[in-house]
Task: inverse folding
């Protein structure tokens, strides 16, 4: 008999699981996530920061955080930079699939803030540079998702159409 998804305890606490590999980039992603949480009214004591050795370890730590029972959502942060082999593609695919599995298994939302880039310059541009901070975007997406899930679970909230996010792909080939 398959296990039924349990409804997690309603919690506004969030966990941020952050890879220490490529720390110059992931530290900036973490700062962006913390800034966004603060801007959206999440108290610092309601954010649990969980360090991970590398991107491969992020999903297991996200699962552990999601299963704690007092965490309403998890942000996964990391940085995978292309090298000379296909290792980056294999790693990125494994991490992404595992994070999706965590969210589906636990019914605790997991937001993807793991960069997959060709070089360090691209990583810096996405960690507070000219392309914004993907850590902040991941935290914003998580908090939005938590709000929609609260509404779907019947917590007396109505589901309103989220404001449109800018389409950053226009004009690109």
Result:
């Amino acid at each position: 008999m398959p296990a039924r998804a349990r409804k997690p305890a309603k919690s506004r606490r969030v966990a941020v699981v952050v890879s220490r590999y490529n720390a110059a980039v992931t530290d900036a992603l973490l700062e962006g996530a913390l800034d966004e949480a603060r801007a959206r009214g999440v108290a610092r004591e309601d954010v649990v920061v969980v360090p991970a050795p590398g991107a491969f370890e992020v999903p297991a730590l996200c699962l552990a955080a999601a299963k704690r029972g007092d965490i309403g959502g998890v942000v996964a942060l990391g940085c995978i930079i292309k090298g000379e082999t296909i290792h980056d593609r294999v790693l990125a695919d494994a991490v992404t699939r595992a994070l999706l599995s965590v969210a589906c298994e636990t019914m605790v939302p997991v937001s993807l803030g793991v960069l997959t880039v060709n070089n360090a310059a691209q990583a810096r541009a996405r960690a507070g540079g000219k392309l914004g901070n993907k850590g902040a975007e991941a935290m914003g997406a998580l908090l939005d998702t938590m709000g929609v899930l609260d509404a779907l679970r019947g917590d007396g909230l109505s589901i309103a159409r989220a404001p449109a996010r800018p389409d950053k792909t226009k004009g690109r080939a």
User: Anything to note?
Assistant: The chain has one domain: 14-152. The chain has a mean pLDDT of 87.
